[in-house]
Amino acid sequence: MVDVFLYAADNISRNADGKIAEYGSHDELAGIPGGIYAKMFEAQAQYYK
């Protein structure tokens, strides 16, 4: 599976298998426990802590 993140205005769309899997603001998506966007963000953020 290929993870695709689309950034438009104030919302982010995470698509999988041709469908929107996650959609919302950064804060909303980063707050989803176990979410793909949250995992990606945490993996990147660890280097800035």
Helix-strand blueprint:
Layout: E1 4-8, E2 11-16, E3 19-24, H1 26-30, H2 36-45
Antiparallel strand pairs: 1-2, 2-3
Could you explain how this protein is built, in words?
This protein has helices spanning 26-30, 36-45, and strands at residues 4-8, 11-16, 19-24. The protein is of the alpha+beta class and 49 residues long. It has a three-stranded antiparallel sheet. The longest helix is centred in the C-terminal third of the chain and has 10 residues, at 36-45. The radius of gyration is 11 Å and the shape is globular. It starts with a strand and ends with a helix.
Q: What is the approximate shape?
A: globular
Report on the biggest sheet. Answer: 3 strands, antiparallel
Beta strands, count? 3
- Alpha carbon gyration radius: 11 Å
Instruction: Give the DSSP E fraction (strand runs of 2 or more residues).
Output: 25-35%
**Helix and strand pattern:** EEEHH
Low-confidence stretches: none
Ends distance: 30 Å
Order of neighbouring strands in the sheet with most strands: 1-2-3
Summarize the structure.
This protein is α+β, with helices and mostly antiparallel strands.
Task: Name a few traits of the molecule.
alpha+beta; 3 strands; globular
